[in-house]
Amino acid sequence: MALDSYIRPPQLNTDRKFPDNMLSAHALLSRAKNGEKGSKKEKRYAVPAFNVTTIASINAAFTAYEMLGSSGLLAFSNSALKFLGRGDAVFGLEVVHDYVAKLAKRSSVKIATHLDHGDYIHDSGRKVVQEAVRTLTSVMADCSTDEKAKRPTPLEANVGLTREVVNMAHPQGVSVEGELGVLAGEEDEDTKSDFSTYTNPVELERFLRETGVLMLAPTIGTMHGPNKGKPGQKVKLNVQLAHELLKLADSIDPRICFVAHGASTLYSQVTEYAIRTLEKGNFSNGSLQKWKDFVGTDWDQIEGLIEAGFCKINTDTENRQTFLAKLLGTVAQEAAKIDIRYYDTATTEALTQSYIQKLIMAGNYGVWHDPKIDIKKFKFDLSKSLADAVGGAS
């Protein structure tokens, strides 16, 4: 799949007008990389990309963004889109586009929508990516791994396929994220790998120059899923490689923003809450042990990546764990409440707390307006209501 390296990839159309209060993901990440908050310039921060899978999780994210004045980045996997679209990912994109656009129009912050791990290798995935370019503000062209064949994609093919997506998306103002290297672990049934490879700096230069992507997910030791290592052992990222890759990317185009995949942390207050619930109830020992064995990526390492220039932090597992922990606790406390909204409200408020926690940790607050809550008073606590956790509006 030869590429004419003398033909420059199309530039991202920054004049594109999206629905009210919606921007490309790259526009939000550029502000983060440059430390822009309102008219002020501060230290770098990151935009957590929340993988949302239900209408309730979308609502929770909007609540968190608006409480903090944050840049909002909603990421949708293929499996989430199929769930939202009653088995049809393309229809799911239509549902997402209409719902988010209506919420954004009423919002006090700016929002981007992003297709996570878009498969442009197989025909079924290509249809989803093509529709995402039409309906979302950002797409990921994940052409680094052939999930069906369970093997890395040759560099030539990865470059060529990713360039096709850039050719289609950039003129429409839709930013594109590429991936170079293979990330191990399982995010969901559509995104998983039993092996991993680090990003090669020599390959990176060619990939960036020939594809024209402005967002890049390198592989530096992060991992998808709830078990990012062995219990009791700290996950070690290749920070030296990360700095080398960042320096190279900046020399090629300082607009390029780096993305950390598999970067979910493990909230001790969530696991402790779930373990206490499981120990009190009539649950299988297998479930209890799984909670005890969960391993996340230590936040100090992710924080170091942000300071170095990673400005998109993908976040999924910790929010799933928060939802499940709160559901277990709510059912244990009130297992005969015949009102779906009771349980939905409890888990949605828990998700909102989880989102607020990560936004504060990433420094993504006060971007579009001052926070409506006192962030110093916020305490992430699943035993509390959202109102009590935020300490009341400021």
Give a short synopsis of this structure.
This protein is 45% helix and 14% strand.
Explained architecture:
There is one protein chain. This protein is an alpha/beta fold. The chain has one domain (25-374): TIM Barrel. It has 14 helices and 14 strands. The strands form 4 sheets. An 8-stranded parallel beta barrel has the order 3-4-5-6-9-12-13-14, surrounded by 11 helices. Strand 12 (215-218), helix 8 (239-252) and strand 13 (257-260) form a beta-alpha-beta unit. The longest helix has 22 residues, at 340-361. It is globular and about 65 Å long. The chain starts with 24 loop residues before the first helix and ends with a helix. Residues 1-5, 191-195 and 224-229 have low confidence and may be disordered.
> What is the straight-line distance between the termini?
57 Å
Average pLDDT reading: 90
In the predicted model, the low-confidence regions spanning at least 5 consecutive residues are 1-5, 191-195, 224-229
C-alpha Rg (nearest Å): 20 Å
Total domain units: 1
Specify the helix fraction band: 40-55%
CATH-derived architecture:
Alpha-Beta Barrel
- Sketch the topology as an H/E string, one letter per element: HEEEHEHHEHEEEHEEEHEHEHHHEHHH
CATH topology: TIM Barrel
Per the principal axes of the C-alpha atoms, what is the gross shape?
Answer: globular
Structural category is alpha/beta
Query: What is the strand tally?
Result: 14
- Side by side, the strands of the main sheet go 3-4-5-6-9-12-13-14
SS strand fraction? 5-15%
Look at the structure and give the CATH class: Alpha Beta
The major sheet is characterized as: 8 strands, parallel, barrel
Count, helices: 14
Could you name the CATH homologous superfamily?
Answer: Aldolase class I
Which quaternary structure do these chains form?
single chain
